[in-house]
Design goal:
Blueprint: H1 3-20, E1 28-29, H2 31-47, E2 60-67, H3 75-85, H4 101-105, E3 112-119, E4 124-132, H5 141-144, H6 156-162, H7 168-173, H8 179-193, E5 201-202, H9 204-207, H10 209-218, H11 227-235, E6 243-244, H12 245-254
Parallel strand pairs: 1-3
Antiparallel strand pairs: 2-4, 3-4, 5-6
Length: 261
């Protein structure tokens, strides 16, 4: 993966979380901010140092280090690491009360993202994410972390179950979809909307894993279309055979599925 593609995927992952947990304005990649982030990543890699914050007080930041024998890295693991280090329950309806990696990712007032990636001589990989305006200002967390109830963080059926006590009347009048209907609805949603994504594409190879995930969770009989037809729909979206990354992961989330690799 090129550094430019890495930055775009990391941006997409940020904006997916921002949309789900607060529905705030998407971040935009900023060239100047990325230069600063790259300089800090290079400095960390050159000195093979621990994760040390920069001295720039005007930016917020998230840092990541990975020891990789083959030089590979995964954007999803980086985001997952930041969320896990924040001790955030993505299925909880409670707002965080303290700042963390996660709160900087979804911070409303932050509008620009800078990304730096550098490989050290020992095989270590350093990732630096800079944010401007900086977030994680303690006295402003309530107005910048807008989590009231996470959308799409659990499957629709699980979400309805969790709210059954407070929303029982509404649930009784709502016709619940069968598992097979839900699967096919999401597959069609992917096909129809993926080609509208302007940034953030996911490879066909990774997209194909959705069938394995669906079959493991629901069984092969829950998909009306066969695998060949499904893959052809993806391939016909554009010349590269890539599908909108954000839409694909959002659709998986609606099924209660997670694509880790």
């Amino acid at each position: 993966m090129s550094e430019q593609n890495f930055a775009i995927e990391l941006l997409s992952e940020h904006n997916l979380l921002r949309e789900k947990f607060g529905n705030v304005t998407p971040l935009e990649l900023d060239a100047d901010l990325s230069l600063k982030a790259q300089a800090h990543a290079d400095n960390l890699a050159e000195n093979q140092s621990k994760l040390v914050n920069s001295t720039d007080e005007e930016v917020g930041e998230n840092l990541y280090y990975l020891e990789s024998d083959d030089g590979t890295y995964d954007v999803h693991h980086i985001i997952d690491y930041w969320v896990q280090k924040s001790h955030i329950d993505l299925n909880s309806q409670e707002k965080p009360t303290r700042t963390s990696h996660f709160t900087q990712i979804v911070w409303k007032n932050s509008s620009k993202l800078g990304v730096g990636l550098s490989k050290a001589g020992n095989g270590g990989i350093y990732v630096v994410a800079f944010y401007h305006p900086r977030g994680n200002i303690v006295n402003y967390i309530d107005e910048n972390v807008l989590i009231s109830h996470p959308s799409d963080s659990v499957s629709n059926s699980d979400h309805e179950h969790e709210n059954s006590d407070s929303n029982s009347d509404h649930k009784n009048h709502k016709k619940e979809k069968k598992p097979e209907d839900k699967v096919n609805h999401v597959l069609e949603k992917i096909v129809k909307k993926a080609d509208k994504e302007k940034t953030g594409k996911i490879s066909l190879t990774k997209a194909k894993k959705v069938f394995q995930l669906i079959n493991e969770k629901f069984g092969t009989h829950y998909t009306n279309m066969d695998a060949k037809t499904f893959f052809e729909k993806f391939e016909n979206l554009d010349e590269t055979g890539k599908v909108g990354h954000r839409e694909f992961r959002r659709a998986l989330s609606e099924l209660g599925l997670k694509l880790n690799h």
